[in-house]
């Protein structure tokens, strides 16, 4: 079946005879420039492609992008991986501000982002993304909405959405409003999601090396409630606004290392439920002042965030085992933080001579309270200074950035207090040439440092989600990524080619090293350092053309990254080779989008890993817009995921065997705009 699908795709691609010429200008929130002016590997996903598609986690919504993958832990958790790097090497931003949750403290922790009523999602691959955040060795993902509007809305826009999915009997509902009342911009968005445990192909769940016949993954349910409110005023001098947001999640932990301890209880362990409850509250003040003496614009923001994640047993107490239940009480992870930032735009930003200076100050207090308190509280203070310049010269465009980051972390291992301080200087230079009217070349050179995270320094105990005993190291040095990225783009008569090749040498790469010993049935591991190399490429070729009925675009893309240690051996959980085939057809009011993702077998494995079989995902989206009256519109979306019901698992996941990807899923979504 797969061979026939690939043959059809290749045959269609080689027999395209018509042409289409269309120019689309997309503006990025990163500096307020168009993507053509950003000489780095950038993706922009339109908000409608997220808002009108099926609800999913952040990683899965980006999985079809070349160079981007997901490390899953059920439907709620999909931590993004960019060019083989995940965790705190990939920064998740909301409107250009760092999302401060506790996703870096556990693979079963979700990214605390509101995926409702988005304007777009921006993805920058590689260390050159230091222009937008510190420590971004892998890249950044910036989730953009218009909660605080910097331009006045015209009119009033309402949206009501309803959704249903089959694999998890899931439902969701949403509401949003944008408008301007008496020269004051107002926004409000609300969304509620309820997913039951999702279906999987028979035999895809593996425990202790043996497949199970279950067709439903227990404890893979998810419930989410989010809402956000924003207001702003826009005047000749600039704008000012504020927003408040709240997100609540409840989801089952589909696999926990604790389950291994409970073997031998017969059927009783199936009654056990481990549940995670998260709650976050966010307050943001934001504004800009223009036409100041010596400055084009002064932008500023203040953000305060209060986040908690509680994980524990909630039901299924075993008879005669009350004492064991008490030993495994709930654990709460908290993160209380604030951040203040300023950006000074120097010179005329519209003349091709852009310069700015940035200052960011933040404090983050992370604590773990309860039975799984594998780390003492850690207080972190971060201060960053950055200078960035973009010049459009006659022969090339040049972007240069330098930033100095001071990171101080106060924590403890046992009764010994440690005050860790790191000062890191990072630089990035990107040069772009228009070799011909239709060919562009980009060369990026960067040296980016990342200070060790809280868990890498101060971890000291049992990490049940990963089923091992982990021990941090207060003597860890900052990682340094020395990266070269070369990209070529071609577009002519509807044909387009985009290719990137990169070499990323990481000094003192932090990884988990197995001691070779076991305590209470779990391996003992340490956070260690070794030099590592990440080499890879992304390649895409396609054709856009017009037909009598609409516009068609077909493309083929491929990515590969190889991660090896300088002393020999493979970096663990590296992303496998991925091929992406895509057909998109658009008429006046109907769009068809067919995507096939072929993920190959991963057998270049690290120490203690197992081979992961390949799989093919066949997905589709059909969207139709129906005009109702003069200003009303009904958008009907039908989508399908994993149509061939493949047994699929992500090699990057710590629980790839026990928590496979969902089986065949169909869904429908209605959005009423008025």
Mind explaining what this structure looks like?
The protein is mainly beta. It has one domain (2-673): TonB-dependent receptor, beta-barrel domain (Maltoporin, Chain A, Beta Barrel), CATH 2.40.170. It is built from 6 helices and 33 strands. It has helices at 2-14, 47-51, 58-61, 258-261, 322-327, 454-458, and strands at 42-46, 68-72, 78-82, 90-94, 97-98, 120-125, 139-144, 156-165, 171-181, 184-195, 206-207, 210-211, 222-235, 238-252, 273-290, 297-315, 331-346, 353-370, 378-392, 397-413, 416-436, 439-450, 460-463, 468-471, 479-492, 495-519, 522-546, 551-565, 578-586, 590-599, 615-628, 632-641, 665-673. The strands form 4 sheets. It has a 22-stranded antiparallel beta barrel. Strands 1-6-7-4-5 form a 5-stranded mixed beta sheet. The protein is globular and about 65 Å long. The chain starts with a helix and ends with a strand. The model is unreliable at 1-27, 32-39, 264-269 and 317-327 (pLDDT under 50).
Nutshell version of this structure?
This protein has 674 residues and is mainly beta. The chain has helices at 2-14, 47-51, 58-61, 258-261, 322-327, 454-458; strands spanning 42-46, 68-72, 78-82, 90-94, 97-98, 120-125, 139-144, 156-165, 171-181, 184-195, 206-207, 210-211, 222-235, 238-252, 273-290, 297-315, 331-346, 353-370, 378-392, 397-413, 416-436, 439-450, 460-463, 468-471, 479-492, 495-519, 522-546, 551-565, 578-586, 590-599, 615-628, 632-641, 665-673.
């Amino acid at each position: 079946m797969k061979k026939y699908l690939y043959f059809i795709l290749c045959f269609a691609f080689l027999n395209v005879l018509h042409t289409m010429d269309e120019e689309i200008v997309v503006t990025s929130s990163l500096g307020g420039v168009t993507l053509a002016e950003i000489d780095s590997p950038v993706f922009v996903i339109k908000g409608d492609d997220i808002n009108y598609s099926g609800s999913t986690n952040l990683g899965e919504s980006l999985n079809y992008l070349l160079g981007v993958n997901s490390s899953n832990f059920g439907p709620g958790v999909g931590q993004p991986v960019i060019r083989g790097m995940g965790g705190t090497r990939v920064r998740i931003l909301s409107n250009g501000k760092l999302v401060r949750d506790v996703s870096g403290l556990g693979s079963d922790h979700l990214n605390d982002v509101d995926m409702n009523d988005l304007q777009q999602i921006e993805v920058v691959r590689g260390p050159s993304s230091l222009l937008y955040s510190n420590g971004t060795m892998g890249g950044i993902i910036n989730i953009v909405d218009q909660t605080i509007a910097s331009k006045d809305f015209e009119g009033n826009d309402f949206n009501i959405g309803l959704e249903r999915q089959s694999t998890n009997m899931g439902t969701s509902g949403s509401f949003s409003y944008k408008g301007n009342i008496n020269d004051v911009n107002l926004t409000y968005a609300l969304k509620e999601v309820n997913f039951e445990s999702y279906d999987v192909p028979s035999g895809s769940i593996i425990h202790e090396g043996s497949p199970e016949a279950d067709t439903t993954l227990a404890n893979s349910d998810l419930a989410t409630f989010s809402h956000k409110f924003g207001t702003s005023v826009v005047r000749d001098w600039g704008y000012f606004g504020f927003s408040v947001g709240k997100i609540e999640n409840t989801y089952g932990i589909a696999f926990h290392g604790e389950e291994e301890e409970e073997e031998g209880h017969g059927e009783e362990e199936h009654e056990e439920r481990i549940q995670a409850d998260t709650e976050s509250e966010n307050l943001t003040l934001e504004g800009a002042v223009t036409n100041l003496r010596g400055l084009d614009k002064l932008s500023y923001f203040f953000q305060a965030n209060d986040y908690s994640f509680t994980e524990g047993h909630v039901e299924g107490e075993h008879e005669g085992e009350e004492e064991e239940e008490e030993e495994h009480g709930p654990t709460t992870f908290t993160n209380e933080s604030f951040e203040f930032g300023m950006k000074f735009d120097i010179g005329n930003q519209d003349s091709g001579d852009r310069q700015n200076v940035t200052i960011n100050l933040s404090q983050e207090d992370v604590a773990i309270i309860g039975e799984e308190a594998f780390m003492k509280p850690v207080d972190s203070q971060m201060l960053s200074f950055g200078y960035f310049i973009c010049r459009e010269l006659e022969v090339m465009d040049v972007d240069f950035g330098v930033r100095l980051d001071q990171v101080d972390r106060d924590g403890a291992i046992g009764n010994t207090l440690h005050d860790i301080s790191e000062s890191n200087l990072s630089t990035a230079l990107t040069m772009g040439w228009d070799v011909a009217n239709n060919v562009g070349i980009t060369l990026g050179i960067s040296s980016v440092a990342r200070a060790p995270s809280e868990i890498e320094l101060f971890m000291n105990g049992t990490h049940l989600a990963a089923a091992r005993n982990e021990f941090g190291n207060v003597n860890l040095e900052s990682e340094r990524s020395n990266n070269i990225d070369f990209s070529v783009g071609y577009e002519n008569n509807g044909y387009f080619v985009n290719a990137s090749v990169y070499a990323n040498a990481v000094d003192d790469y932090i990884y988990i090293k197995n001691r070779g010993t076991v305590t209470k049935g779990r391996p003992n591991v340490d956070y260690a350092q070794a030099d590592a190399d990440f080499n890879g490429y992304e390649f895409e070729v396609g054709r856009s053309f017009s037909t009598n009925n609409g516009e068609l675009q077909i493309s083929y893309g491929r990515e590969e990254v190889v991660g090896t240690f300088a002393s020999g051996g493979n970096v663990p959980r590296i992303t496998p080779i991925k091929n992406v085939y895509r057909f998109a057809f658009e008429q006046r009011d109907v769009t068809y989008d067919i995507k096939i993702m072929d993920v190959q077998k991963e057998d270049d494995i690290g120490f203690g890993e197992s081979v992961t079989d390949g799989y093919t995902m066949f997905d589709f989206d059909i969207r139709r817009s129906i005009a109702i009256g003069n200003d009303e519109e009904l958008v009907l979306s039908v989508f399908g995921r994993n149509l061939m019901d493949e047994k699929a698992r992500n090699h990057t996941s710590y629980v790839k065997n026990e928590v496979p990807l969902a089986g065949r899923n169909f869904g429908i979504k209605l959005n009423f705009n008025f």
